[in-house]
What does this fold into?
Amino acid sequence: MTDRKILSLGKVAPAFNLLNQKGEKISLKEFRGKKNVVLYFYPKAMTPGCTVQACSITKAKAKFSRKDTVVLGVSPDAPMRLEKFRVKEKLNFDLLSDEDHKIADKYGVWGLKKFMGREYMGINRMTFIIGKDGKLVHIMHKVNTKTHHDDVLALIAEKLC
It folds into this structure.
């Protein structure tokens, strides 16, 4: 079992270089000084809760843009599966592949999960709001997939605007 990492608000968010759905490398540092980043971790592409969450973010993209914010979704899915998900649901933001869950480990979201009496290791759904300076502004430990986009926009308005 992986030890859960505890991240501190006000500290620089852990760096990453991950492949997006097109196989392009995306780095957290490319947004520093330019955009706030909403980094959300989700268990698996094309599952009901993850689809609701991603489609809601897509519908709210203009609102995120007006707040100088980019949204990045991270899962252990391969880039090819992420591209299928993006095309099928007409998603308009980058999905990042963390197949070896190294970044999930850095952010403390990889851990023991339980479903229908079965225990397994996987991504615990969490969201990290990172300011333009690269520092963690807020960590959402409890995520409601249906209201996630509105909840995050409210936090950005409260903490970054």
About this structure: The domain at 33-159 is CATH 3.40.30.10 (Glutaredoxin). Residues 109 and 156 are 21 Å apart (CA to CA). The chain has a mean pLDDT of 94.
